[in-house]
Amino acid sequence: MSFVRFAARRVAEMAATLLVASFVVFGAMYLAPGSPASFLLAGRSASPEALASINAQYHLNDPFLVRYLRWLGDMLQGDFGRSITYRTDVSRLLADRLPVTLLLVAMSLVVVVVIGLLLGRIAAVRGGATDSTVLVTTTFAVGTPSFVAAVLLQGLFAVQLGWFPSSGAGDGLGDMLWHLTLPAIALALYLIGMLARVTRSAMLEALGSEHVTVARSRGVPERQVIRRHVFHNSLGTILTTGGLIVSTLLVCTILVETAFSIGGIGQLLELSTTTKDFPTVQAISLIIVALFMVVNLIVDLLLPLVDPRITLGTRGAAA
């Protein structure tokens, strides 16, 4: 299958999936108990006229399908609606908060890739006690949820030692990097263990392959064998896991941002869900779904480049 044809098919599939996801997201919020009107009234009694005004402003009395189609049409034009909680355009909220979340995810991804690949490679190549130590360490990492890691790191390095800020995202790039260091580590800890184990398993499998034995018998230096024949042949499996890692980062950032009071879209989603801010929840949910699909598309397009045995549209299978 040609690259252009495959990309076009995947984009069409993404559009169809987003359409279904938009219906599910909108329907879930429509069926959720409570209503935006109850939040706006904050428990106060309201006259029928005031309640009717609120319902008319947010189209709460319109039929489900009418509300969905109006919302979908606005979304296609880049209009995410108006936040019920913050009384401002959702697009403005996203523009203010999305960069913080993307920076946090990027920092966490760098930590995961660098440490995870390093630990996995060391464990596979050295074996013995080093391999056992890495396995024990990664078992601890995989068994520690992001929220628990956030609380532990915050209590030790922010509260007890005072080395890092305990909350907030900071102002300016340098200050933001400093504020997001602990959250990035908390977000990355579980995924470091996952990537290290996947890298170790993939490299151990490659080490036992016939072409590695042949390369060694021909006198190829061990470092070159590891780099060209072992690590390179493991990249397909590692890259596939990388797509899952990015998707997990996007989900887990909600917990970490809440623990560290970071004003990103994760914390915004949690607060908006609590206050029944339907437009904000729907917009963020669709953005997360879209990011998932974009990540998977990128992985599928890169796999044939790192592993010629894989063809477009066959993830993880040799051609």
From TrEMBL:
Its membrane topology: Multi-pass membrane protein
Coiled coil feature spans: none
Q: Does the keyword Cell membrane apply?
A: yes
**Which residue windows are transmembrane per the record?**
12-32, 100-122, 134-157, 177-196, 237-263, 283-306
**Pfam families of this UniProt entry?**
BPD_transp_1, BPD_transp_1_N
Domain of life according to the entry: Bacteria
Keyword check for Transmembrane helix: yes
Q: Tell me which InterPro entries the record gives.
A: BPD_transp_1_N, MetI-like, MetI-like_sf
Assign the protein's first listed, main location to one coarse class: membrane
- Cross-referenced CDD domains: TM_PBP2
Any idea where this protein resides? Cell membrane
Keywords per UniProt: Cell membrane, Membrane, Transmembrane, Transmembrane helix, Transport
Q: Which family does the entry's similarity section mention? A: Belongs to the binding-protein-dependent transport system permease family.
Name the record gives this protein: ABC transporter permease
Q: Which source organism does the UniProt entry give? A: Streptomyces fildesensis
